[in-house]
Structures are given as C-alpha cells and as structure tokens.
Amino acid sequence: MKFVSTRSGAAAVGLSEALRLGVAPDGGLFVPESFPRHDATAFGQDQPLERFAADWLRPFFAADSLAPELDAVCAEAFDFPVPLVPISDRLQVLELFHGPTGAFKDFGARFLMACFDRLAGKEPLTVLAATSGDTGGAVGCAAESRRSVRAVILYPKGRVSPFQEHQLTCWGSNVLGVEVDGDFDDCQALVKAAFADTRLRAAHRLTSANSINLGRLLPQVAYLAHAAFRAARSGGKAPGFIMPSGNLGHGYALLLARIMGAPVGPVVLATNANRTLADWRRTGRYEARPSVATLANAMDVGNPSNFERMVALPGELDVTVELVEDAAIEARIAEDSRRYGYTWCPHGAIASEAWHRLPEARRQERPWVAAATAHPYKFRETVEPLVGRAVEPSPALAAILGRPVRNEQVPAALPALADLLDRQLVGA
Ligand SMILES: *Cc1c(COP(=O)(O)O)cnc(C)c1O
Question: Is the pTM of this model over 0.85?
C-alpha cells in the first residue's frame, strides 16, 4: 500500500515514510492510494480489539517494513479496555478514555510511538508537538522510556488547567514539557518554524505527532470499526455514530471504516460553538475561522485539519453536523447525570446532546453509539458543580498526580527553542 498527498502529485510513499514525515512534502496530508475493502462476514465474530485491529489495518501495512511488526504494535497500543456502555434503550457510550492519560489521544500516541520504536535507526527521533491539552500528555506518556524517541512538548503559559500542566510535565528524562510565553497559536508557529529550519530539522531528526499524522488516525479506524461490529451484533442494524469533533480525526476514521466494510450507519459530527463545519453543511462552502474558546476546549478548532482528508474520500460526503453551545453542554451534563446516572466530560456531553436532538423515530430505528472522548475528571472544574458531587480520578489519572514535575520555559521565539533543543541533545 502506498500513500499519496491530498494536494498534488508528490510521489507516493510507503507507510513507514508517511509516519516518519507526518506531513507530505507539498504540505498536504497523506491518504491511502486505494481503499481496501474487507469481507464483513470475516469480522463479525467477537474478537479482542488488539487482534481485530491488526487484521483490519493489515492492508495499510502491506509491503512495508513495519508489516511483520503490526501484531506487536497493536498488542502494545490496544492494551486497555474500550467498553460500550448502554445508558438508555438505544444509546451506548463508547468510552475511549481508559488509557493512561484519560483521553482517546492515548491510542494514537501509543500506536505511533510503537511504530517509531520499530523504524527509528540508531539516532533517536525528536517528536516536537504543540498542545493545548490532551495531545501533549498522551504523547509524553507514550514516549516515556522509549529509546527511539525524545518528546518536546510546547504548551502555552497560563492557558492549560492545573491537571493538564501536570500531565505535560511529569514524564521521564526523554520527555520535556516546555512552557511558552505565548498562546497556543504561538506554540504552533514555533513548531512550524522549527520544522522549516533545515539545520534543526536534520540535527534533531524532528518529527510530528499531531493529528495529521496517519499513525494517529489508523488506530481510530480500528477501534471504531470494532465498535461498529459490536453494536451491530447487539442491535441488529448498522449503528449510527455521534462523534464529538474538532480536527475531524474521528470523523475521517469513521468514514474510512465504513468504506472498508464496517457496519457504520449514519454519522453525526457534533461540534461545540466553533461553527466552521455547521456552516459548511448548511451552505456548502468551507470557510476556516479563528477558533473560539468553549467548555470543550479540545475541540476549539476553527479550521479542522482532517477536512482535507474527508473531502478526498470517494463518493458523497454523507454526514450531518450538529452544533452544541456551552449552555447546552452544561444542561446535558446535569440532565444525563440525573436521568441516567452517567457523568460526561464536556466533549462527550456534546455527542449526547446531539443524539437527544434527533427526532424520536430516528433514535428508535437503530442502535446509536456516542463517543466519550475524555475522562470527566480531567474537566472536573466544569463537571462537578453540574452533577453536584465530586468526580473521582481513575487509578491511572491518580497515578499521574503523584508524579514529580519539571519543565523548561522559553519565550515564543525560535532561537530560544533552538538553543533548548541543542542543549537537550547534548544532555540526552
Ligand atoms: C482531540 C479531542 C477531540 C477532537 O477529536 P477529533 O477526532 O480530532 O475531531 C474531542 N474530544 C477530546 C477530549 C479530545 O481530546
């Protein structure tokens, strides 16, 4: 299998190269050159996720040097549960937050690092990532103690929650949290500038781990396909999916899973007040906007990067979009706690709200799956007053709180970051 850029005729590359590069040389995103189709009857049996994932993803690894490693990569990346929890007659919650940092980003980060471990040469790669919250923690955790990678995670000073800061700065010596005197856009600009600097890029073997890297998307395709088969078995019909959406990693992964033969019914992309997708669905025109801050901050995206991948899929783009404002998020967290005894984080609450807004007949016609993308403890400042009680951390999150932290601070300027990287290289 080869991967091509969404933008132009850049030469097709194999999977290892696509993972290593992150972004195509022409600035586009890597997509599969063709779309493998599975015989769904071969996947209908109850299979553990790690085995299912390896079989589902095998065509993407064909003819690549990573192919013999796929089973081991999946065993490493999918070693925590992904329960489907029924909360009402027709609605099940796909809980994606049982990984070590309590967000679905753990799957992608662990899958990608497991691949890097197997493709890096003698010199370690440096994963440089800007984060506004979940990604950095998952990447730091997944990179810890690996010999093949160092991770340098940039986050904006004073703009992340205390727990988020803790989980960005508590990993081993090959992971460095860097507090940037600026906002998230400054952090992203710094990462871009570092990648554009030929010397830095080569000296540190820089690579990226944000959601445009295929290595983060592939595991999403696998667990969503697995969930579709499970929900279809329990409910007869192909389940509908409601995904809390930001950069559209899940949106793209679901459509890909469907094309590959998973029983995925209607797809609802649920967003916060960032209106780019809702406007696109309404008017047919895609217009990027500056992001606005909401309670579901991991979805504060005004220009979803994977949109480019979605429109490159074959066939009609068959999705609906539901926009949920902060007030409705709060009301839904309170209501579902009362009614079902279920505690959502603000992102998952958006999916539940979108489901409750579907006409009754549509809700009843098939099983529906809403994704819970983060553990509510990570957003307890928002959630606790709404549900009227303390939200307890999972054992994994509690363990993070017990770890010592360290960070570096830099101004939002490339020379300072370059200096830090060079010093770290010597120290590593
Ligand atoms: C990253 C993130 C999202 C957005 O996910 P996409 O798949 O990129 O749309 C939603 N919820 C949480 C908690 C996240 O961390």
Answer: yes
Residue 350 burial (C-beta neighbours within 10 Å; 0-12, 13-18, 19+): buried
Q: What is the pLDDT of residue 272?
A: 97
237 is catalytic: no
Please answer whether residues 245 and 304 qualify as being in contact, where contact means their C-beta atoms are separated by less than 8 angstroms: yes
Specify the length of the chain in residues. 428
Q: Tell me the two tokens of residue 31.
A: 């997509």
The stretches of 197-344 forming alpha helices (DSSP H) are 198-204, 214-235, 249-259, 276-283, 307-310, 326-340
Q: How confident is the model at residue 25 (pLDDT cuts 50, 70, 90)?
A: confident
Cβ–ligand 1 distance for 248 under 6 Å, the answer yes
Find the distance separating the first CA and the last CA of the chain, reported in whole Å.
36
Q: 110 near 139, Cβ under 8 Å?
A: no
Band of pLDDT at residue 24, cut at 50, 70 and 90: confident
Chain CA centroid to CA 423, Å: 31
**Rounded to an integer, what distance in angstroms lies between the CA atom of residue 339 and that of residue 39?**
40
d(CA 94, ligand 1 centre) in Å: 14
